[in-house]
Amino acid sequence: MNSLLGALKSGKVLVSDGAWGTMLQERGLQPGECPELWNVTHRSDVFKVAKGYADAGADMILTNSFGGSPIKLAHYDLEGRAAELNEAAAAISREAAGSSRFVLGSIGPTGEMLMMGQVREEAVYDGFRVQAAALKNGGVDAIIVETMSAIDEAAIAIRAAKDATGLEVICTFTFDRTVTGEYRTMMGVSPAEMVKAVKDAGASIIGANCGNGFDQMIDVVRVIRKADPSTPLLVHANAGLPVVEDGKLIYTETPEMVAVKARRLAESGANIIGGCCGTTPEHIRALVKELKTA
């Protein structure tokens, strides 16, 4: 595979995959279960999620490793199996993607706050380094540090991934709109602050994921583009904002609805577009049809 940056030089918008958590839940993942453990206990189910997105035409497939840092896995007493579970996650997505699609190794937050002294910086770095190295061993082409809200943790994850793998690193934050109309993370980070911090740490692709539907992400992209007009930008948007039905979160936007909005997202400056919570292979298929036929 060529690099992601190389693939983006053509100017074409690339399509990423969709939700993982909600898709695994549809296959039986229960509240309180460790999703990453499914890479060895329910391998065929994890493979089917990845293969569904590959068959839908996605240019890249993520890995089932979002919570795969040793610190996060410690909640399940699985910290000692971090390398095993991450390498398995990468191998599954690599098999599903084949040789013609990129595989992005997913690294999410630890769930602990560095500024509150809940965990040592060295432990966070070491854990992310173990995770990233295992993802590379399993066959990923790049690392995506995603759903971040704090600059310190994101920067550590990026540095650890670069040190352990030498691969390109993407970093996305999750933003919410404040009462004053600005976009900030739960830790108060603005899009402009995110851009500078993650680029300084070594990320070559920036972006946003989760927390917002495609409509809101259009605004987020415009704000990011004011701060940085040129760095490649990835967006993973939800299938709209969720509503509660019978005690469950339901994402109501159809594949056809998000496809139309994805065109506007691309026009606003997104270079890679995919889905987050509530999106399915059918949503990704619709994105491919809309974005690849212009």
How does this structure look, described?
The model has no long low-confidence stretch (mean pLDDT 95). It is built from 12 helices and 12 strands. Helix 4 (43-55) packs parallel to helix 6 and helix 7 crosses helix 8 (151-165). The protein is an alpha/beta fold and 294 residues long. The chain starts with a helix and ends with a helix. The strands form 3 sheets. It has an 8-stranded parallel β-sheet. Strands 6-7 form a two-stranded antiparallel sheet. The chain has one domain (4-291): TIM Barrel (Alpha-Beta Barrel), CATH 3.20.20. Helix content is 45%, strand content 18%. Strand 6 (176-177) and strand 7 form a beta hairpin. The chain is globular, with a radius of gyration of 17 Å.
Question: In brief, what are we looking at here?
Answer:
With 294 residues, this protein is α/β, with parallel strands linked by helices. 45% of the residues lie in helices and 18% in strands.
| Strand count | 12
Beta strand %: 15-25%
Low-confidence stretches: none
| Secondary structure: helix percent | 40-55%
CATH superfamily: Homocysteine-binding-like domain
Biggest sheet, open or closed, and with what strands and sense?
8 strands, parallel
Helix-strand pattern? HEHHHEHHEHEHEEEHEHEEEHEH
Secondary structure class reads: alpha/beta
The radius of gyration over CA amounts to 17 Å
Separation of the first and last Cα atoms:
25 Å
Main-sheet strand order equals 1-12-9-8-5-4-3-2
Q: For this structure, what is the CATH class?
A: Alpha Beta
The name CATH uses for the topology is: TIM Barrel
Number of domains: 1
Count the DSSP helices.
12
Average pLDDT, all residues = 95
Shape: globular
